[in-house]
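Recall the central idea of this unit: under ordinary conditions, the amino acid sequence of a chain determines the structure it adopts. In this exercise we apply that idea directly, starting from the sequence alone.
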Amino acid sequence: MPQTQVSCPRCRQPVPANVEQLFDVTSDPGAKQRLLGGVSNFIRCPFCGHEGRLATPIVYHDNEKELLLTFFPPELGLPLNEQEKMIGPLIKQVMDRLPAEKRKAYLLKPTANLTYESMVETILGKDGITPEMIKTQQERVTLIDRLLQATSAEIRSEIIKQNEKLFDEQFFGLFSRLAQSAAQSQQPKLAEALGGVQEQLLKETEFGRGLAESVGEMEAAAKSLQEAGKGLTREKLLDMVIAAPSDARIRGYVSLARGGMDYSFFQTLTDKIEKASGDEKQKLEHIR
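Accordingly, the structure predicted from this sequence is:
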């Protein structure tokens, strides 16, 4: 996407930015992610460090979900007739792109949004994402920022203790995506900081410890399978599964050797269960 020179609202220096006013998901499926992901209409000033959304009119359209939304930043201070002059041509573009059979009644009544946040909530709401879910995600982002801003491991430990319930699968998924993004966008300092925080989270949170165990057991399972090599049979694989020291190791075998766990594999396991008794029988049933 070609960039436009805009003035930083804080220091007034010229800064390149992706400025986009029409997000027509029907003709451009990637438009939604550019809007919600802050790719477009977001400024990062290299001179003063200011970061934030650009104040620009927005029209969002999704024919499949019958959404036609408009947002006009109040800080622009333009009267309604001037707003309509800017928004009108964008809506006309939407109409012109649609074949006659897809022009439905919703196009005649665009939904005006007083805030950017309400527009985003409407878009996400159509995907089944509630305001409560959005709030929880924002809490996760804020928590990650607090952990990054902490000046010592001790302070991070205290933050972790205070927010133990937030460290779940969704949190670590978000954290992982941020770390990958930092690495891919060549932000070595941020990537290093995230790596340090992650190391502490894996040690000091219940979910993190479980995750670290799973990774370790997956590596151990891979090593065992590699050592078995071409001599690995269904019977030997079953013996390895039965001898696994933890459920995490068993999950590792299942993930890496699923192809060998066919009908014959489970029939052999069933035969062992029928011949076993007591604790051994219970263990084999748990594995199955």
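The two ends are 53 Å apart (CA to CA).
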